[in-house]
Design brief:
single chain, alpha/beta, seven-stranded mixed sheet, 14 strands, about 45% helix
Length: about 375
Amino acid sequence: MLQALRAELEQRQAQGLMRQRRLLDSPQAEQITADECQYLSFCSNDYLGLANRPELIAAMQDAAGNSGVGSGASNLITGHHRYHDELEKQLAEFVGMPAAMLFSTGYMANIGVLGALAGRGDAIFADKLNHACLNDGGYYSLADFQRFPHNDVQALEQLLKASTAKHKIIAADAVFSMDGDIAPLPEYLRLCEQYDAYMYIDDAHGFGVLGEHGQGSLNHFGLKSPRIIMMATLGKAAGVAGAFVAGEQVVIDYLIQTAKSYVYSTPAPPALSATLSASLKLIEQGDDLRAHLQHLIATLKHNLHLTKWQLMPSETAVQPLLVGGNDAAVKLSKHLQNQGVLVPAIRPPTVPVNTARLRISLSAAHKTQDVVKLAEMLNQAEKELAA
């Protein structure tokens, strides 16, 4: 087995697919210290710049003094602290859903929800560009797992029309993490109503950023329905960690009893939930942060003047720059890194073959001049590297 593992790693290296970890010695911010070097970072999903906010640091310190540093037992034993419970109620109210429940991570939420709500005889219909955890949740569920072309409403309708499954679930990212575009959620809900299906939406990259006061992608489209179940992570725009699922009370009650990644896991420390309660207030009051983020997105587009590399269509904080080949994307990323700017190269299997890209993540913590600097460096890099 060791020989086979070594051979596979060597093959990854030869294909330009080897990933590396950076050692961080600073908080998440627009300026970071990684591998003992200073960088301007466009790598973080901390979209509102909350991960290092003094208010949240103080909230965590205070809550740890009151609740300790660990939950000690699963939620259904003695691990469900008042801080957890209060946050769940606050999150449900914030996103306009009857109820919500916490998971330790978005990955655990997606495999837990899909594994609990769908099984043999049911069907899950998933966008081909969904995040890996939605795919794993679909496979884990043992339901008939069917994938449709990216954002293709017509193809999805044909699958729903042909399905004889007892229960049907459309599962999709709201904002796609590597493309930055938004799913046609109103059309999906229309199909749910027409074909007696339910819609499970992963709003990891929309929550806190889109919608009124950052309520997320569903609010962005003005969607409400008992057929909707949503998940959002709390380590991106919220700046802390974890995830939550929201929906009808009966759905949440059922998941508490049956979602294995919830039932059989120790929850995150209560202090994190207390910190997230403070973060939720900052999100709700963060219209200026979201306005600045939109300004940065417009600034990047205005200042990029590329002829060979292509900025993919996106109105969100995820701004992917399509380069093409794996080696070319890695070379560009290293070129920027040598000049003190971090932008990650994203390669297959995370994205389709021949669509390697730089994933530019913008944050309200960035200044206008940071984004102008990045654009100018990319303009010059294309002249030097893509000639």
